[in-house]
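ok so I'm stuck.
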Amino acid sequence: MSKQLRVWDAPLRVFHWLLVLSVCTALFTGWLGGGWIDWHARAGLSILGLLSFRVAWLLLGSTYARLSTLLCSLLALPQYLRGEWRQLGHNPLGVLSVFAMLGMLSWQAVSGLFTNDDIAFTGPLYKLVSSSLSSDLTRLHKLGMWIIIGLIVVHVLAIVLHAVLKKHNLVKSMITGQTEQQYPEQKAAQGGHWRAFICALLIACGAVYLASGEWQSAPPPAPAVAPAW
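replied:
not stuck anymore, here's the structure
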């Protein structure tokens, strides 16, 4: 019987599926627009918080969630293309996909803070930029939606091809956190304990607070209008 190794820690798996849910919600509500735009904004803040958590987890997480492991995998691209890559975690092409997706989602989440719909909605940090810059960011934000959809399609196709060609169920691994050991040199993930999780969670909460604009001073109340009599 093959040995099962821990490869994805629980916080990373929860992050992954919450990000899937938040991105789907953001795409759906952004497409509908109108009265759904407030939910789109909430989904955007959720994505920003999740991405902030993931950035912290690049340094605090377990072995295969860390930036150092991802970079080492990326440097092994020539070996991977020659069929000599035998490590666990993201393969070099998977690392490129992760960086592209996280980078594009970060752009979408941050740019959305400054957008407007020329009617009633403005992003929580809209007042920090000029109206012309907000309009430019809004246009680029809408364009970014299609890039993200394209990245999602490529991501799903890669998962399907991996399952068909290599008989490796990546979805199951991201649910259970376990994968089958194929080579003796493959080692289970280490680290990513509860203290690291709390620290990353606090960073994410701080990022959401800053992005929400709640720290901005409230505008003064409108002067009372004297009755016309």
